[in-house]
């Protein structure tokens, strides 16, 4: 009975033209299994490839209006609001060029007639080394005394430490009135004494290196300048600009303070070196040389470290810090 039933179903299948695959095809002969496999492939569902769609990016233009574009946008550099007007106002306030830095800066402390040029460059570097934590007027006075003795690498190396310390005094010192038993004042005076002694040591060490390695000249690269004893990033950048005429960066305590007050950095910075890196990300390079002297004088006359003269500043309405000072 069961065999008869199987024969009956097989006959019905042939009558309807439906093979054992259920697709209306006859089973492939034993020798044609590869053809059968290809046949089965041709009847499998085909995945339809989706057409690539162009991504539309929404963005805001300089006026704050949103729009959409089909093309990828170029990366825009962050820049502070109103900086062009703020800079123009500072230029106006500094147009008389009568700040201490304009007459007593490092570029004014060297002897322009001293031959050869390497002597002038050495004097610029020495002025910068003396200027650390020292007012321009004090640095200029020390440089005048040194120049009167003959300010060259060989002359400095021939000068004993005590004499050199007297020539640069009061560089590294501030006047202090010591009351009897004033322990804090004594400690402060000792720290200042150590600072002056350090400057004498650094000047001697740097002069010896310049004589041995650079024939009395100063290095012409930032990395080599920073490697000299007592020469930091600020001095090195300024030496490159003043002595070699190469603008390599922006760095100064006044620039650091003013840039943060005007919000010229994306976030508040903690050091002049951090400020330099932040400014150089967006400030056009052709302004780097100008900005240093411009802001130094502005910081000496109006944007003072303590009690800035906001009432006399043209940027009072544009300065975020002026609203809180």
TrEMBL record:
Keywords in alphabetical order: 4Fe-4S, DNA damage, DNA repair, Glycosidase, Hydrolase, Iron, Iron-sulfur, Lyase, Metal-binding, Mitochondrion, Nucleus, Transit peptide
Gene3D superfamilies reported for this sequence: Helix-hairpin-Helix base-excision DNA repair enzymes (C-terminal) (1.10.1670.10), Hypothetical protein, domain 2 (1.10.340.30)
GO biological process, one term: base-excision repair, AP site formation
Biased composition (Basic residues): 41-54
Annotated spans, Disordered: 1-70
Domain HhH-GPD: 130-301
Cofactor: [4Fe-4S] cluster
Pfam families assigned to the protein according to its UniProt record, in alphabetical order: HHH (PF00633), HhH-GPD (PF00730)
Role according to the record: Bifunctional DNA N-glycosylase with associated apurinic/apyrimidinic (AP) lyase function that catalyzes the first step in base excision repair (BER), the primary repair pathway for the repair of oxidative DNA damage. The DNA N-glycosylase activity releases the damaged DNA base from DNA by cleaving the N-glycosidic bond, leaving an AP site. The AP lyase activity cleaves the phosphodiester bond 3' to the AP site by a beta-elimination. Primarily recognizes and repairs oxidative base damage of pyrimidines.
Family: Belongs to the Nth/MutY family.
Entry protein name: Endonuclease III-like protein 1
Lineage: Eukaryota, Metazoa, Chordata, Craniata, Vertebrata
């Amino acid at each position: 009975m069961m065999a008869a039933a199987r024969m009956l179903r097989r006959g019905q299948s042939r009558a309807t033209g439906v093979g054992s695959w259920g697709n209306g095809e006859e089973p492939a002969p034993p020798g044609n299994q590869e053809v059968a496999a290809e046949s089965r492939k041709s009847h499998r569902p085909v995945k339809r490839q989706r057409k690539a769609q162009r991504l539309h990016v929404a963005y805001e233009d300089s006026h704050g209006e949103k729009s959409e574009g089909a093309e990828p946008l170029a990366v825009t550099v962050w820049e502070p609001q109103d900086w062009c007007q703020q800079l123009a106002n500072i230029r106006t306030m500094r147009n008389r060029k009568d700040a201490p830095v304009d007459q007593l800066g490092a570029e004014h402390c060297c002897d322009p007639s001293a031959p050869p040029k390497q002597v002038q460059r050495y004097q610029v570097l020495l002025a910068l080394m003396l200027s650390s934590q020292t007012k321009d007027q004090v640095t200029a006075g020390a440089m005048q005394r040194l120049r009167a003795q003959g300010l060259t690498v060989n002359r400095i190396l021939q000068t004993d430490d005590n004499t050199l310390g007297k020539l640069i005094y009061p560089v590294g010192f501030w006047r202090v009135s010591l009351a009897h038993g004033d322990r804090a004042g004594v400690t402060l005076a000792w720290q200042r004494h150590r600072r002056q002694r350090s400057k004498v040591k650094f000047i001697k060490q740097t002069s010896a290196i310049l004589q041995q390695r650079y024939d009395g000249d100063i290095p012409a690269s930032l990395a080599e300048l920073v490697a000299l004893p007592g020469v930091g990033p600020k001095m090195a950048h300024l030496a490159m600009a003043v002595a070699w005429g190469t603008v390599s960066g922006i760095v100064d305590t006044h620039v650091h303070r003013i840039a943060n007050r005007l919000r010229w950095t994306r976030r508040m910075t903690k050091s002049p070196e951090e400020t330099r890196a932040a400014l150089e990300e967006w400030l056009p390079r052709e302004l780097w040389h100008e900005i240093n002297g411009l802001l130094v004088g502005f910081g000496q006359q109006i944007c003072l470290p303590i009690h800035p003269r906001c009432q006399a500043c043209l940027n009072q309405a544009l300065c975020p810090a002026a609203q809180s000072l």
